[in-house]
Design goal:
Elements (H helix, E strand, L loop, with lengths): L3 E5 L4 H13 L5 E5 L3 H9 L11 E4 L2 E4 H11 L15 H13 L1 H5 L18
Parallel strand pairs: 1-2
Antiparallel strand pairs: 1-3, 3-4
Length: about 130
């Protein structure tokens, strides 16, 4: 099984909360995580043409491709199994309608949800899932 990598903003309260949610509910171990502040996260963002100093999305890397914006979130939730898989139904909404909402939240994430003083760090049990 090739594990997928989620690159997220560990300074963002919403983003790091989502990362913790994924670790808690990904019982099959589908995902590894990398913060955009880490060397691995910076390298991954750059490899997909995303400025790591001003990212506007989390990405889900699957092999040599990256999903971003709402496509990434929906793919993550689908992989978590039930009941989270049910959120995949939002995939029927055209991306042209989903992504503007995602981007608005991403641009305003610190103002809406807060910014951590330091990056979120996983507990000892989760460290093997972090790049």
């Amino acid at each position: 099984m090739t594990r997928r990598v989620i690159v997220f903003d560990a300074m963002c309260v919403l983003c790091s909360g989502h990362a913790q949610f994924v670790l808690r509910h990904d019982r099959a171990g589908h995902f590894l995580l990398a913060s955009m502040q880490s060397e691995a996260g910076v390298a991954i963002y750059r490899s997909f043409g995303i400025d790591p100093a001003d990212p506007d999305t989390l990405i889900l890397v699957e092999g040599d491709r990256a999903l971003r914006d709402s496509d990434a979130i929906l793919a993550i939730w689908r992989a978590l199994g039930w009941p989270w898989r049910a959120a995949g139904v939002f995939g029927i909404v055209p991306r042209a309608w989903r992504d503007p909402g995602y981007r608005w939240v991403a641009r305003h994430r610190y103002r809406l949800f807060g910014r951590r003083e330091t990056c979120w760090l996983p507990d000892a049990a989760q460290r093997s899932r972090i790049l």
